[in-house]
Every structure is written in structure tokens, then in C-alpha cells.
Amino acid sequence: MSRRLLITGATGFVGWNLCAAAPRHWQLAALVRSQTLPAPAAETLVADISDPAAVESAFKSVSPDAVVHAAAMSKPADVELHPELSRRVNVEAPVKLAQLSAETGIPFLFLSSGLVFDGTQAPYREDAARHPVQLYGRQKADAETLVLSEHPRACVCRLSWTFGPPAPQHPSFVQPMLETLRSGNELTEFADVYSSPANVRAVIQGLMLVLERGTGIYHLCGMDRASRFEFAQKLAEAFDLPPEKVKPRYRSDVNDGIIRPPDTTMLISRARDLGYEPLPLDEELRLLRQQLAG
Predict the structure, then answer these.
(1) Rounded to whole angstroms, what are the CA distances from 161 to 54, 191, 239?
(2) How many CA atoms lie within 13 A of 285 on its CB side?
(3) Which of 60, 80, 115, 161 could join 197 in a cystine, given CB atoms 3.0 to 4.6 angstroms apart?
(4) How many of the other CB atoms lie within 10 Å of CB of 240?
């Protein structure tokens, strides 16, 4: 008999791809903000994730066997502009779902971010000290602590720059890059901001492994370190677009009020112990081209 998996943030980039690729032995229930937003799941529920009563009502109506919480306010400018709302979404909602999951004794998986680190001590292990420099990172760090306190067997999965086929409402960060390069325009990307990019294909594989067998904190990112500039060059090469159109820029060139950690590269040791195996970045980008063509 299929188990019921509740996925929040099901119209977001990762949530939508998870709904589309989740194994068939899970019966999916997708939590969305509006009935007009599509989600590739057997059941769709509408609830405001910032409303604890609505979250609890949706949880009880589904009676899930496991929860993956992918919903978030993740744009740093929006988080800074709406600190109270973003805290309800990024901290209070996952804590509420962790409490409900703990009460019913089911697995709970919370998607966090490499932005819990300040970017000065990379590469980061799962147990590395967290020093977030953005409000979004501070909210994610607070949520990690509270989720694991409320549900000792919960899983926290920190993601990095995740790319792949776009969701109908939320493309990944590669779609604007490809659009710019295909139009013949120059693409400027940071040469002094590093992380470990991952294909959403690998991330979903990792999420399902953690959901089945994990506890604690895992890093589900790529195996290679790259700057945004290096990544964009590799993306251009993988899609037979001119890499010379990719130009570097630097954090000091941008005065938008957003603090960018220089290097949030993470190690994937614990996830690898479960069987998580992303491909080298060049191979993942070639695979992305196949995914988008198919």
C-alpha cells in the first residue's frame, strides 16, 4: 500500500521537481498557496504556509506518513523587506510541521541552505559552526535548531545552487543565464562567489535516501566547487554557446545591500554514506541539456 507524502512548496523549483520525480510507492499530497498554481501530485491542498492553523488543518486532512518541507521565502531582498512574514514562513511554519510530525511519529525533512554559513571557512562539514550573514541565513539557522529540538529524528538537508528543468512558476537560476546567452548578450556573473552547484536530479535522489534512512543534518549539493562565473562558462560550453560572452564581476562592484558569503561550498560526506552520488559538474550540465531537450 502506498504511503502518503506531504510536500510543501510544491510549486517551487525543488518542490515541483520532487513531486514530478518522487517514486511511485509514495502517494503525493502537494501543499500550494493558490488553486491556480499547478503541482504534479495526486492531491493538491491550498493553505497559507504562514498561518499555523491552516498548516495544522492541511496536515490533519492529509494524515501523512512523511513530510518534506520545501516551502520558503528565499529571495534575500524579499526576506529583508518583510522580516515578520518571512520569519513566519521560514521559521514558524517548519517548526509547526516538525511538531505535528513528531506527535504522529513520522519522518520530517526540512530543506535548509548553505547560507547558514558566512563563507569564510569552506568547505563546510555538516557539523561546522554556523555564522549566517544574511537575514535569510539566520532564519534558516534558527529553523534548523528548532526543528531538530522539536523532532529529534528530523532531517535537515542543506542545499546549494540547485539547477534543472524549470517549474511552471519558478525556473532555476540557469534559465535566465541560458536566455541571455542565446540572445547573444553578455552575461555577467560573480567571480568571487563560490559554492557547490547541484542538478535537481541528484538532489531529489538524495532527498529520497534521507527520507528513508536519515536523521540529522545532510548536505545535498554538488561534488565540485565553482564560482558563479565559472559555472556560467561551463553552462555555455555544455549548451554549445559562446563562453566568451560570460564576463566576470565582483561583490565589490554591486551595491544592492545584499551581503554575499564568498564561499559556501559544502562537503557531502554523510549523504554519500547513504548512497548519494552526484556526477561531476561537467557531466551534470550535459545531463541538464538532455533533460531540457527531452
Answers:
(1) 30, 15, 19
(2) 23
(3) 161
(4) 7
pLDDT tens by residue, 166-192? 988 889 999 999 999 999 999 999 999
Q: What is the pLDDT of residue 163?
A: 97
Instruction: Decide if 276 is inside a domain.
Output: no
Q: What is the pLDDT of residue 35?
A: 64
Is residue 185 one of the residues assigned to a domain?
Answer: yes
Averaged over 162-167, what is the pLDDT?
A: 93
Strands, E, within 86-200: which ranges?
108-113, 155-159, 162-163, 187-190, 194-195, 198-199
The 10 Å Cβ neighbour count of residue 55 is 23
Cβ atoms of residues 225 and 265 within 8 Å: yes
pLDDT at res. 106? 97
Mean of pLDDT values over 142-166: 97
Closest CA to 197 of 175, 225, 229, 219: 225
Claim to verify: residue 72 and residue 99 sit in the same structural domain: yes
Domain span including residue 245? 172-195+226-263+282-293
Domains in the chain, number: 2
- Read off the CATH number of the domain in which 125 is found: 3.40.50.720
Q: What is the DSSP letter of 167?
A: P
Is 41's pLDDT higher than 90? no
Average pLDDT of the segment spanning 62-82? 95
Whether 262 contacts 193, CB under 8 Å: yes
Q: What is the mean pLDDT of residues 281-294?
A: 93
